[in-house]
Amino acid sequence: MSETDTPVEEMSFEAAMRALEQVVGQLERGDVPLEDSIKLYERGAALKKRCEQKLKEAEEKVAAITLDAEGQPAGLKPVDPT
């Protein structure tokens, strides 16, 4: 299954970024018919949202790392599910 066939909600951050870069490249070239441009734009918006979601998840994981008295990672604190 190629990245263009993979549902956006199943993509990793890296795969979504690559796909988003491809969409932006196609739109910037301007050689895509209007209807296809609209579909590309919609896919690009979904890919952007997926990237933002994956970044937020990563930030939350990093914020959950606890440090010991020497400033070394000591484990994880539970992430607030709200």
From TrEMBL:
Its main location: cytoplasm. It holds the Pfam family Exonuc_VII_S. Residues 41-68 form a coiled coil. The keyword Coiled coil applies. It catalyses: Exonucleolytic cleavage in either 5'- to 3'- or 3'- to 5'-direction to yield nucleoside 5'-phosphates. It is found in: Cytoplasm. GO terms for cellular component: cytosol; exodeoxyribonuclease VII complex. GO terms for molecular function: exodeoxyribonuclease VII activity. GO terms for biological process: DNA catabolic process. The keyword Nuclease applies. Belongs to the XseB family. NCBIfam families: PRK00977.1-3 (NF002139), PRK00977.1-4 (NF002140), xseB (TIGR01280). Heterooligomer composed of large and small subunits. Bidirectionally degrades single-stranded DNA into large acid-insoluble oligonucleotides, which are then degraded further into small acid-soluble oligonucleotides. This is Exodeoxyribonuclease 7 small subunit. It comes from Roseivivax lentus. The lineage of its organism: Bacteria, Pseudomonadati, Pseudomonadota, Alphaproteobacteria, Rhodobacterales. The gene is xseB.
